[in-house]
């Protein structure tokens, strides 16, 4: 009977160690990915700024929750102007959004007025999010496929 108890204790310890290691790695991946999006989006804003159109009023921020297992990155607040800069308006928005998945188009539609706008968009957030998302999913799968050896 002692052999069975030892086996259960060993498996239990291995599972606990695996869980702890996975949580630490996922937490690090989430925080690193959010930080990367924040930096890339801020750099895109800086690159897209011109003397005629200074974009330094847009501040991209990350917010990390659930002990690092969840988070968000974006422009906090209710001002719609950052969305118009991101997506453009009128035909410019149609062109920019044609490259995005439907869920991004749905977000952009929340800022739709009449389709007659003439502001040329300068994407900075969602384009960078989609780049990091691909890398995040790959690295997350690698973490979840990791095997712990006793």
What is the secondary structure topology, with strand pairs?
Layout: H1 2-48, E1 60-65, E2 70-75, H2 81-87, H3 90-97, H4 102-109, H5 126-145
Antiparallel strand pairs: 1-2
Helix pairs in contact: 1-5
Give structural notes.
The protein has 150 residues and is mostly helical. The protein contains five helices and two strands. It has helices spanning 2-48, 81-87, 90-97, 102-109, 126-145; strands at 60-65, 70-75. It has a two-stranded antiparallel ribbon with strand order 1-2. α1 (2-48) runs antiparallel to α5. The model has no long low-confidence stretch (mean pLDDT 89).
Main attributes?
two-stranded antiparallel ribbon; 150 residues; mainly alpha
Alpha plus pi helix count: 5
Class computed from helices, strands and strand pairing: mainly alpha
Widest β-sheet, arrangement of strands: 1-2
Query: What average pLDDT do the residues reach?
Result: 89
Terminal residue distance: 21 Å
DSSP strand count: 2
Low-confidence runs:
none
Strand content: 5-15%
| Fraction of residues in helix | 55-70%
């Amino acid at each position: 009977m002692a052999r069975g108890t030892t086996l259960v204790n060993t498996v239990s310890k291995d599972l606990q160690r695996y869980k702890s290691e996975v949580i630490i790695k996922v937490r690090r991946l989430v925080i690193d990915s959010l930080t990367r999006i924040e930096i890339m989006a801020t750099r895109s804003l800086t690159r897209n700024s011109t003397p005629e159109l200074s974009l330094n009023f847009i501040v991209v921020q990350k917010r990390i929750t659930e002990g690092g297992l969840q988070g968000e990155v974006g422009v906090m607040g209710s001002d719609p102007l950052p969305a118009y800069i991101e997506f453009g308006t009128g035909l410019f928005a149609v062109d920019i959004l044609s490259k995005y998945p439907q869920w991004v188009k749905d977000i952009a539609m929340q800022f739709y007025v009449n389709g007659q706008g003439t502001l040329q968009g300068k994407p900075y957030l969602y384009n960078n999010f989609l780049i990091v998302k691909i890398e995040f999913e790959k690295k997350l799968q690698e973490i979840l496929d990791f095997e712990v050896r006793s």
